[in-house]
Specification:
Blueprint: H1 3-7, E1 27-30, H2 34-40, E2 43-49, E3 54-60, E4 66-72, E5 79-82, E6 85-89, E7 93-99, E8 112-121, E9 127-133, E10 136-141, E11 146-149, E12 157-160, E13 176-182, E14 185-191, H3 202-205, E15 211-215, E16 220-226, E17 229-235, E18 238-243, E19 248-252, E20 259-264, E21 268-275, E22 278-284, H4 299-307, E23 314-319, E24 325-332, E25 341-345, E26 350-352
Parallel strand pairs: 8-26
Antiparallel strand pairs: 1-24, 2-3, 2-25, 3-4, 5-6, 6-7, 7-8, 9-10, 10-11, 11-12, 13-14, 14-15, 15-16, 17-18, 18-19, 19-20, 21-22, 22-23, 23-24
């Protein structure tokens, strides 16, 4: 490691405050049609919040009531569900969860039991999005301004950085945050601004719509003028993205690079997943401290104040056919921000565990005995 990189290792590394778990009482307020919609989809949702370090799993039980479980992980960030395995970024690790139940099995009313069975330690590289495929597990190492890939021995394997980033060195220069895969490998990435100086993006994010979407394979910006974009996702040959600083869910024309807003959400939009003909978008309340705090810091806050709408921490279900927001689930209590959302098809009553769960002491799934 170079001297320059070593000297920079204090950037952004802050020891988190301990969480008072007794105060983490989460309230769920579904809109009238949300439970019926989720039941009809024959799926459940995994979503998380890093401000209180929680991973949630949400479904609907056999009598039509919400089935809700949670697990605690420090700084829970990007999540990805692929081939039955759930991956999640935390403060210093990427964790792998496996479902210990086979299709059709149930245990204590659950049709899926997700157990953290492995973890790769990356260090505090400021993990953001995680995207898994048959070709590997990719993620954004924001403090290295690059996309990384899980490596069997080392912290991670850097596989790409934007061309405007002059070197692979520690220090957040452009706030690279999210990636979309195509054919199993990274295709698009978002960042707050194409800057190469340490925290250069912070000087622009508030006052200018300087966010960009980059084609990873050509290394060219395909869309600019976005306000703190996140969560690019390719679904049915369309590239979707959240224009977070405006509280929008939208799409990008891949021929022209034009961004079109599909709908507005009462919060800082971040995290997209798809179930059949619907998108589910996470939204967060504006921070009281940080780059998008204050009543007039972002277009989102200006719009909500003008419309006299309170910002919400919620999941929003949007019809891809009409662009209308049809259902919501509002999260009440200490959870004020959602980072990511993932659909879990075919499982309706999942249970998720953490490393300190009492249930994990007596939850086993050995391989078959071969004599």
């Amino acid at each position: 490691m170079s001297k320059k990189t070593t000297d920079a290792t204090n950037f952004d590394v802050k020891k988190p405050k301990p969480v008072d778990k007794s105060a983490l009482r989460i309230g769920l307020k579904p809109s009238p049609g949300f439970k019926a919609w989720l039941s009809d989809m024959h799926a459940s949702l995994a979503f998380n919040t890093y401000n209180i370090g929680k991973l949630f799993m949400l479904g609907v039980d056999e009598i039509g009531q919400l089935a809700f479980t949670d697990a605690s992980f420090r700084r829970s960030m990007g999540i990805s569900y692929h081939n039955g395995t759930l991956w999640m970024a935390t403060e210093t690790q990427i964790i792998r969860f496996e479902n210990f139940l086979d299709q059709g099995q149930t245990s204590h009313g659950h049709d899926g039991i997700f157990v953290p069975v492995g973890a790769t330690t990356t260090g505090m590289v400021n993990l953001h999005d995680v995207r898994a495929s048959d070709k590997g597990v990719y993620f954004v190492a924001t403090n290295f301004n690059c996309i990384g890939k899980l490596h069997p021995r080392w912290s991670f394997e850097p596989v790409w950085k934007p061309k405007f980033i002059s070197e692979l060195a520690y220090g957040d220069r452009c706030h690279l945050n999210s990636i979309a895969l195509e054919h199993g490998v990274p295709k698009y990435a978002t960042c707050f601004s194409p800057t190469d100086g340490f925290h250069g993006w912070r000087e622009l994010a508030r006052d200018e719509p300087s966010g960009v979407v980059i084609d990873v394979q050509t290394n060219e910006v395909i869309c600019d003028g976005l306000h703190m974009p996140h969560s690019p996702q390719i679904y049915r040959d369309t590239l979707y993205v959240t224009n977070s600083g405006k509280g929008e869910f939208g799409k990008i024309d891949l021929e022209t690079g034009a961004y079109t807003a599909i709908c507005e959400v009462p919060g800082f939009t971040r995290g997209i997943t798809f179930i059949k003909n619907y998108a589910v978008i996470g939204s967060s309340k504006p921070r009281q401290q940080g780059v998008f705090e204050g009543d007039d810091a972002t277009p989102l806050n200006i719009r909500l104040n003008a419309e006299k709408i309170d910002p919400q921490c919620q999941l929003s279900v949007v019809s891809l056919a009409t662009g209308k927001l049809e259902h919501t689930l509002t999260i009440e209590g200490p959870a004020s921000e959602i980072y990511d959302v993932a659909a879990i098809p075919g499982i309706q009553r999942p249970l998720v565990m953490d490393f300190e769960s009492e249930q994990i002491l007596t939850t086993f799934r050995p391989t078959r005995l071969v004599l």
